[in-house]
């Protein structure tokens, strides 16, 4: 952390802003990115999420290739525990799930867990390293940005949430038919006489699903990251170091709860939403 | 805090990851777990069956043992009975033999007695003649007194 102490001490706002800025293409330095701008691409978010996806895929492949039916060892035991745990959740919540729900749920759980876990790395470690490496190639380290936690970015959380939303619509149409799905908008929840209200209510209900999924994860992880940054700012003086260490430890311990919990909630709600989508119209 | 083109990238990565995890890990592992569950159930059923069979075998063995014991007891009883019979037979035979020996001995004794008497009888006349000769101091003709001698001998 010592490499970043100097800017942290001199200008905390700049320190935090620097940490909250993505490494992006399609945007000039200092330029504000609009809320929705598809000409911008966050390289760091994509890089880390793909690296973690690759890690996950590698272990999945490695374990899946060496499955030992009678004497499970080491990694296989861990994987079996996770698979059985997720499978049990799916069975409990969504009894007649098809073959996609389980893999979807475990992928969400593990991938989000891995991405969230990037929060446990010291906040300055990778950005400072990256800045140092970039400065070797003549870049100004103050203009080199790196956000290491992909889930502190709306692209990731909404990428997942919108994928789930697409599946919600798909499962609705699959199980209710197009007309059945439309009927749900027209007649639910107040019956045919309040049709306009129904449409608004059901639309809000449906849209709230991906929005809440995406925002919940984003909000939790962003807040966690921000708090780590604020705690890192305590390095302004040697006298504040014990406080920094104590708070950092406390927050890290608390975050150990938040990280898997958020991954679990995302997975659980995905199963719940898809389970609801798969109920036929008569079940309502 | 904004939505950018990264969103589409993340969705694609996510879809590929789901497909990948599904095909390399989820499905093979569920199959393995399912198979194992089946095998464990089979094993438990077999163990249950084995236990039941063991129970049966134990009961059977117990029955056999009981039967064998009863048979052995019967054999022993028969043996004892037979032994008693043999002892009785032997005793009876011995008594019979003893009786026979006694009878024979008595017959022998009588025979001996009569023989001794006979011998005495033959010698008594000679003794009487010899005694009389000593008393009288002269020879006596035994033939002349044969009748008196015979009477004497008959008294023995």
From TrEMBL, chain A:
Gene3D superfamilies: ATP synthase, F0 complex, subunit A. The chain crosses the membrane at residues 40-61, 97-114, 120-139, 151-173, 185-205, 217-240, 252-276. It is a multi-pass membrane protein. It comes from the Bacteria. The keyword Glycosyltransferase does not apply. Keywords: ATP synthesis, Cell membrane, CF(0), Hydrogen ion transport, Ion transport, Membrane, Transmembrane, Transmembrane helix, Transport. It is found in: Cell membrane; Membrane. InterPro entries: ATP_syn_F0_a_bact/chloroplast (IPR045082), ATP_synth_F0_asu (IPR000568), ATP_synth_F0_asu_AS (IPR023011), F0_ATP_A_sf (IPR035908). Its main location: membrane. Key component of the proton channel; it plays a direct role in the translocation of protons across the membrane. Belongs to the ATPase A chain family. This is ATP synthase subunit a. It comes from Thiothrix lacustris. The gene is atpB.
UniProtKB/TrEMBL annotation, chain B:
It is a single-pass membrane protein. Pfam families: ATP-synt_B (PF00430). InterPro entries: ATP_synth_B-like_membr_sf, ATP_synth_b/b'su_bac/chlpt, ATP_synth_F0_bsu_bac, ATP_synthase_B_chain. The chain crosses the membrane at residues 6-26. It is found in: Cell membrane; Endomembrane system. CDD domains: ATP-synt_Fo_b (cd06503). Keywords: ATP synthesis, Cell membrane, CF(0), Coiled coil, Hydrogen ion transport, Ion transport, Membrane, Transmembrane, Transmembrane helix, Transport. Residues 51-82 form a coiled coil. F(1)F(0) ATP synthase produces ATP from ADP in the presence of a proton or sodium gradient. F-type ATPases consist of two structural domains, F(1) containing the extramembraneous catalytic core and F(0) containing the membrane proton channel, linked together by a central stalk and a peripheral stalk. During catalysis, ATP synthesis in the catalytic domain of F(1) is coupled via a rotary mechanism of the central stalk subunits to proton translocation. NCBIfam families: ATP_synt_b, PRK05759.1-2. HAMAP family: ATP_synth_b_bprime. This is ATP synthase subunit b. It comes from Thiothrix litoralis.
């Amino acid at each position: 952390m010592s490499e970043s102490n100097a800017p942290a001490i001199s200008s905390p706002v700049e320190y935090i802003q620097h940490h909250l800025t993505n490494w992006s293409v399609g945007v000039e330095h200092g330029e504000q990115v609009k809320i929705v701008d598809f000409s911008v691409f966050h390289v760091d978010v994509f890089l880390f999420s793909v690296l973690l996806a690759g890690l996950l895929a590698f272990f999945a492949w490695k374990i899946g290739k060496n499955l030992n039916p009678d004497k499970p060892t080491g990694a296989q035991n861990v994987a079996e525990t996770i698979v059985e745990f997720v499978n049990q959740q799916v069975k409990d919540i969504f009894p007649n799930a098809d073959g996609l729900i389980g893999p979807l749920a475990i992928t969400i759980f593990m991938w989000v867990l891995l991405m969230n876990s990037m929060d446990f790395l010291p906040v300055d470690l990778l950005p400072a390293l990256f800045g140092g490496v970039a400065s070797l190639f003549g870049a100004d380290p103050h203009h080199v940005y790196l956000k290491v936690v992909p889930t502190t970015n709306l692209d990731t959380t909404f990428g997942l949430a919108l994928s789930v939303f697409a599946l919600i619509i798909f499962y609705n149409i699959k199980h209710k038919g197009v007309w059945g799905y439309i009927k749900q908008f027209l007649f639910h929840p107040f019956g045919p006489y309040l049709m306009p209200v129904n449409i608004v209510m059901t639309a809000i209900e449906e849209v709230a699903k991906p929005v809440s999924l995406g925002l919940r994860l984003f909000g939790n992880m962003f807040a966690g990251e921000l708090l780590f940054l604020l705690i890192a700012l305590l390095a302004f003086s040697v006298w504040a170091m014990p406080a920094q260490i104590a708070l950092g430890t406390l927050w890290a311990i608390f975050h150990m709860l938040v990280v898997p919990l958020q991954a679990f909630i995302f997975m659980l709600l995905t199963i719940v939403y898809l389970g609801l989508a798969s109920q036929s119209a008569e079940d309502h | 805090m904004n939505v950018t083109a990264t969103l589409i990238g993340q969705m694609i990565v996510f879809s590929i990851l789901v497909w990948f995890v599904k095909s390399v890990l989820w499905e093979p592992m569920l199959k393995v777990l399912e198979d194992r569950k089946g095998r464990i159930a089979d094993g438990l059923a077999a163990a249950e069956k084995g236990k039941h069979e063991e129970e049966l075998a134990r009961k059977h063995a117990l029955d056999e043992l009981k039967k064998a014991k009863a048979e052995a007891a019967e054999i022993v009883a028969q043996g004892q009975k037979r032994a008693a019979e043999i002892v009785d037979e032997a005793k009876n035979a011995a008594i019979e033999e003893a009786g026979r020996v006694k009878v024979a001995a008595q017959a022998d004794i009588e025979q001996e007695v009569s023989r001794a008497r006979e011998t005495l009888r033959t010698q008594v006349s000679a003794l009487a003649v010899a005694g009389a000769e000593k008393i009288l101091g002269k020879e006596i003709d035994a033939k002349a007194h044969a009748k008196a001698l015979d009477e004497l001998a008959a008294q023995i």
